[in-house]
Amino acid sequence: MKKKIIVLLILLGFGVSDSSLLAYANTPFQGHIEETNINPKEAGEKLFTKEQEKLEGNKVIELTVSQVLAGTTSVEGDEFFAEVSEDVLAGSGVLLPKGTVAHGSIKNIVDPKRFGRDGYIELSFDYLMTPDGREIPIEGDMTSRLNPAKSVAKVAGENLTYTAIGGVTGAMAAMEVAGLPGAIASQGYTVIGGAALGGVIALGMSLFRKGDDVLIAPGDEIKVKISSATPIQIMTHEAVRQDELKYEGLEVSITDVLLEKDPFDNLNTITLDVIIKNGSKKDFSTFDIKLQSDLHKSYSPSIFSDYANSLAMKTIKSGDNVSGTLSFSVDSPNRQHWLVFYDRRTNKPLAKISVDNAIKDLKITDLQKKRKKRKKVM
User: Fold this and answer.
1) Which residues pair with 273 in a beta bridge?
2) CA 26 → CA 11, 14, 29, 278, distances in Å?
3) What is the pLDDT of residues 16-73, one digit of tens each?
4) Residues 146, 151, 153, CA angle at the centre, nearest 5°?
5) Could you check whether 48-144+221-235 and 242-368 share the same CATH topology?
6) How far is CA 51 from CA 30, 93, 148, 364, 375, in A?
7) pLDDT at residue 235 greater than cutoff 50
8) What is the Cα–Cα distance from 258 to 306, expressed in whole angstroms?
9) DSSP character at residue 22
10) What is the pLDDT of residues 146-198, one digit of tens each?
11) What's the average model confidence in pLDDT over 245-268?
12) Sheet containing 232-235: order of strands
């Protein structure tokens, strides 16, 4: 029961808000005896390769944080969870699949200081929990603190901005007091003096201004160097592939996946390069194609795409062979997504193509190309 509650809290922390989870938590475990022809050894061979590998200290892993970590609300020792954003590849398989949960705690919080120095937070990680239930002890630390050179440059840049604004303000004040004739009569010295005075005042204000408080929000991505003392069993690529739904006659290939900014400068647009061969008897308009997340949120194609070959607002008729792009503005780009083709009459999904599977295939192809280059060099 304790394990069930922990899993429920982790899911809720990542934004799953389905009433079925509450029902799951309150439902007692039920089971029955069932005969099966599945050989445990064969099942293990399908899940894992024969390779093992340690997480080295220089291995950088991208994690998505599940909760708010702020200097004003969090305290040292608070626990938190983060989720592995991308598959960590190793050998001929996957060392850590996307969705692996990392457990950590807040090691240190430093409040913002005078002279515009920002606060920062230090995090410590102790174990990973993979989707297949393995618990892996790890060591890892992360800090949001800027290195001294960057920190000084940031403060100096801000002080310069404050001084410039103060200078303009001082010049404006001098103009109001002496007026334009006075400025001309004094050959501009009243304006220059006012600017200098305004600059001094503003610089003093900036030096005593406190820096920003540290804040890590849900969905923020952090990069952490993690190491494991014990070898980790490598999973096969097939074991971590997402389920898909095929529709007879409809062939869809995702040849590239890009994460881009929307017109409002937010990095939340997933753009897919696709090749579609519609050998089915159905036509598909833009309204029949959506991107669906693992949280069951659906997104329609964006009409703000700058691509000349965008398939948005186009109909893919029976017998068409087309290629182009489809862009979707999503809430959380790091979630799992499927490109879904719906039946217009029943609004039921006919085909579901995993974006994550496409990303995996692209990475594997890229890795194989790099290995071939290395062999040629050697």
Assistant:
1) 256, 325
2) 15, 20, 9, 46
3) 434 333 333 343 334 333 344 444 445 456 789 999 998 887 778 888 888 888 777 7
4) 140
5) no
6) 36, 9, 42, 17, 21
7) yes
8) 13
9) H
10) 444 443 343 333 334 334 434 333 334 333 444 444 443 444 433 334 344 44
11) 92
12) 48-53, 232-235, 93-96, 88-90
Q: Is residue 104 within 8 Å of 126, Cβ to Cβ?
A: yes
pLDDT of residue 17: 39
Query: Distance between CA atoms of 61 and 41, rounded to whole angstroms?
Result: 31
Question: How many helices (H) and strands (E) in the chain?
Answer: 6, 19
H helices present in the chain, as ranges: 2-13, 19-26, 40-47, 148-185, 189-208, 355-377
Instruction: Provide the residue ranges of all domains of the chain, joining segments of one domain with +.
Output: 48-144+221-235, 148-208, 242-368
3-state percent helix, strand, coil for the chain, nearest multiple of 5: 30, 35, 35
Residue with tokens 């909760």: 67
State how far the Cα of 244 lies from the Cα of 238, in Å rounded to an integer.
13
Cβ proximity of 221 and 62 under 8 Å: yes
- Per-residue tokens: 336: 């799992």
Q: How far, in Å, CA of 294 to CA of 337, rounded?
A: 6
Residue 336 has pLDDT above 80, yes or no: yes
pLDDT of residue 360: 86
The mean per-residue pLDDT over the stretch 85-110 comes to 88
Q: How far is CA 115 from the centre of its chain?
A: 32
Q: For residues 226 and 140, give the distance between their C-alpha atoms in angstroms, rounded to a whole number.
A: 4
The sheet carrying 337-342 orders its strands as: 298-299, 289-293, 337-342, 349-354
Residues whose CB falls within 8 Å of the CB of residue 51, separated by 6 or more in sequence, listed in order: 90, 91, 92, 93, 233, 234
In this predicted structure, what is the pLDDT of residue 298? 95
Q: What size, in residues, is the chain?
A: 378
Q: Which of the following CATH numbers is that of domain 48-144+221-235: 3.30.390.50, 2.40.128.260, 3.20.20.105, 3.10.450.50?
A: 2.40.128.260
- List all residues 6 or more positions away from 32 whose beta carbon is below 8 Å from its beta carbon: none
Provide the mean pLDDT of the chain: 73
Per-residue pLDDT averaged across 260-281, rounded?
91
CATH number of 242-368: 2.60.40.1240
